[in-house]
Amino acid sequence: MTSRMLGIGFLSPAIIAASIFFLLPVLLTVMFAFTNMSTSTGIMGGDYRINTEQLRSVGETGISAESVEKLETAGFQITETGLAALADQFDEKVADELREDFLGESFAARRDLERVLRQLDDPIRKTRDRKAAADLFAVTIVGERFDTEEQFRAALSDTGINPADHDVLAEFAYTGWTWTTDNFKLLMELPSTVRFATNTAFYVVCTLTFNIIFGLFLAISTFYLPGKYANTFRAIWFLPRILPPVLYVLMWNWFTWDNGFIATVTGWFGVPPQNWMMQTAPRAWTVIILINGFVGASLGMILFSSAIKAIPSSMLYASEVDGANRWQQVRYIILPQMRWPILFMTSYQTLSLLTSFEYILLATDGGPGRTTEVWALAAYHTALNNYGGNLQYGLGAAYALALVFIGIALSVLYLRFFNFKELLAKPRIEQ
Amino acid sequence: MTNEIRTSALAGAIAVLAGPTFAEDINITVWAGGSNDSDSYRIEAIEIAADILEREAAIQGEELNITVEGRRDFTGWDEFKQGITLGAEAGTAPSIVVTSHLDIAPWSQAGYIVAVEDYVDLDSWPLNNVYPNLMEIASYAGTQWGIPQDSESRPFFFWRETMTQLGYSEDDIDALPARVASGEYTLRNVLEDAKKAVEMGIVEEGYGFYPRPSNGPDYAQFYLSFGGELVDADTGKLVLDKASMTEFYQFFVDLVAAGATRQNHIGTDWNQWYNEVANGRAAFWHGGTWHFGRYAREGNDDFWNTIQFSLIPAGNDAGRPNTITHPLVYLVMNQEDDRVEEIAAQLIAIATEPRLNSLHAIQSNHLAVAKAQSNIDLYRGDRWASEATEVLLSSASSQPNHLQYGAFSEAMFRGLESAWSGVQTPAEAVAEVEAQMRATIGDDLIVR
Question: Do A298 and A410 reside in the same domain of the chain?
Fold first, then answer.
């Protein structure tokens, strides 16, 4: 019993970390994906309000024509109740004067009534007092905010709206988010979905291929170099990974811009200056795959290099005695023993490429013409960042949720396909 | 030593005698979007207003200390709006924001902002002097949410020397704004002339027509030029006019095909863009009234003899020459402390004082928000402000304050981008825009 507790105790930091950094975000994504959360609904809940803009379509909700009319015509009216409240909270004299001149009169907007209160012989002098006084005569709920449904329903009753319509109106007036499955329907309907998916598949496959092949190339080629040179080369190729992404991409921008390095050099040969990153979609893809590829390849290089070093050198010596050339060593000794690291890099990089978009964001931001917009970037643009500030958290989460499922499915596939269990049980390298 | 003790004792006694006057400390944070150095008065006007309000309070025997903290170092509108929205959710929103009037609809719906009309008297000075159409733009659904901070418009520009080389006389060029306004000189003429300028080698390929390099309200102007309508006046619903949208996209596709505009133009660096148009590298382009000052900083100090400006020409018979004014507004954000909201609203009202607003208008080459500004020497003496007002503002319209307009304009620009860059034909792009809008905007959309 105690030993079990001890085990859990040791595991708890990992459990807490996994819950906070993995489980919670996933749960929240699932939750968000089933809501219509956006900038205009807010995240923290809403309140109840009908404004004049909504009045235009309130008739379409199916409430009775009488209720519609009551909502539309109500405004501010000088009534005895209002006057009594005014006399109580402000000044008897003001109330008397108002009663004398304006009893029974209606005002469409609060501003009209404020003007009256301002021009009385004995005016209410302070702006905020005037507004508070005017509010005492409100017989409208249009434009007013109510924090809770009860308050809203009470106000509806006060306005004399048929209780049968209260439910519909409460739903209509709610400004917060609601549960819905529309996001997924929308994803199926939107023509851009297929394009983003194709872009993502293209991006992942190309970058992954480049990563692995180039990483292997670097590892093997530096393996055959003398130690000092090998380390220098590895350090240089490791730069893309340790540079801050912003700086790294800025250098690429400088490299490819209209007045950047390539344009300048090609300019000597009479090529007109052009943007070597953004001119066409194929160029944008090439640059993006290279940018991400070099970052991934450097990690692959380190991993593969250490894996090659773990191969018993006696095997290589033996092969040399047998007359094998370099290529045969690579083909028959090194590569077969690299299955596990290659597999690891493939699955790790697939999953990280699927969800990473920062280098694309910094380089092309999905352009030109959304041709390099990948799924994760689309999720980011939809949910968190676009020119109009129209942030659709719900739809963005639905995008992200799709990625979560694809990620899990791919993980399972990799586990089965590469037979992870066997590899874990008996590392080939140690044979 | 003894002296000091005596003095402090005296000070203490006076403080006690004076009674319990509470010094009230208020912190006001102002975030201004889309602002660079020349827009510094968006924040500084609030600082000056704070000084005035403190003095007013002092006269009434209250001690009010207002600390104003401004921020305008945002990389773009996207980052600014993201910061505001997420800040509002987290309860760390600034007290005052300077932002697009288009944010009023969604932000008021979400409860991020409070209505200024709840705190200030709209019938008193200086708010009663603000142009009523601008006040209208700063309101939504019957409520005055904000106060216009500046006004502007987005003209079409011609490089005079290029026009001369194309065969226009000085008189022709001077008459251009009128010809554009009457619908005689249209976007078709722009296309022809831009193509000719490239073919004749006056400008380089891709520099015939050199549009804004990023998303912005400017592109809605071309939709209007081809007869589009943003909002249906009767129902208040957004309108997608497919024929106009297709022609609008087609115009940009034709420009690319003619070599007058670069296919990958969107995403061009803004600094590069300003420098090129200010120095005559492009034949035609479009921009904003505030570009006037920027061109001077880019080395063109002779605007009037090098550049002509007009409305955005009409595109076809259904369309009209037009320009969009996209005023920024001061908004008060929802705060835990109602007193902060009240002070913030009062500061905004004071900052609208014609003299204060003129500082911003002239420094940043924007247009006035209040009528009295035309009587302020600083404003009246500025040729650009008065001529731009005359040529442009009378025909200026604005984009609708509508909950879904953000989605509408985003979809419209995405469609333009994919047609322009050759990913889709204009017809395909419009079909996708329609699908996108139907799905996201739904009942609030009318498709024609």
Answer: yes
Q: Based on the fold, state whether residues A305 and A374 are members of the same structural domain.
A: yes
Say which DSSP state B370 is in.
B
Q: Which of A44, A191, A280 sits opposite B89 (nearest CB)?
A: A44
Q: Do A369 and B84 touch (CB under 8 A)?
A: no
Are A265 and A140 in the same domain?
Answer: no
- Domains: count for chain A: 2
CB pair distance less than 8 Å for A385 and B436: no
Query: Do A377 and A399 contact (CB within 8 A), yes or no?
Result: no
Contact between B30 and B70 under an 8 Å Cβ cutoff? The reply is yes
Is there a domain that residue A62 lies in? yes
Rounded Cα gap, residues A314 and B399, in angstroms: 76
Q: Which of B123, B267, B413 sits opposite A278 (nearest CB)?
A: B267
CA distance B390 to B393: 6
Distance from CA of B171 to the nearest CA of A (A): 36
Residue A34 forms part of a structural domain:
no
Residue entry with tokens 């004071």: B350
- As a whole number, the mean pLDDT across chain A is 86
The closest CB to that of A389, out of B89, B140, B406, belongs to B406
Tell me the pLDDT band of A425, cut-offs 50, 70 and 90: low
| B105: chain A residues, CB-CB within 8 Å | 40, 53
Q: Of B109, B264, B435, which is closest to A279 when you measure between CB atoms?
A: B264
CATH class entry, domain B21-152+326-397: alpha beta
Model ipTM?
A: 0.81
Query: What's the rounded mean pLDDT across residues B282-301?
Result: 90
One domain, residues A166 and A138 = yes
Q: Does B31 touch chain A if contact means CB atoms closer than 8 Å?
A: no
Kindly report, residue by residue over B173-207, the tens digit of the pLDDT.
Answer: 999 999 999 999 999 999 999 999 999 999 998 89
Q: State the CATH architecture for B156-324+404-447.
A: 3-Layer(aba) Sandwich (3.40)
**Mean of pLDDT values over A99-115:** 84
Residues of chain B with CATH 3.40.190.10: 21-152+326-397, 156-324+404-447
| Domain housing A67 | 52-173
Segment A362-379 shows an average pLDDT of 88
Which residues from chain A sit within 8 angstroms of residue B106, using beta carbons?
A: 38-40, 389-390
Distance (Å) from the C-alpha of residue B392 to the closest C-alpha of chain A? 25
B123 near A CB under 8 A: yes
Q: Which long-range contacts (CB under 8 A, 24 or more apart) does B334-341 make?
A: B334/B88, B334/B93, B334/B111, B334/B112, B334/B113, B334/B114, B335/B93, B335/B95, B336/B91, B339/B24, B339/B26, B340/B26, B340/B27, B340/B28, B340/B95, B341/B95, B341/B114, B341/B119
Residue A159 to residue A250: CA distance in whole angstroms: 62
pLDDT tens, position by position, B311-363? 999 999 889 999 999 999 999 999 989 999 999 999 999 999 999 999 999 99
Q: Compute the Cα dihedral for A46, A52, A54, A60 and give only its sign.
A: positive
Residue A365 lies in a domain: yes
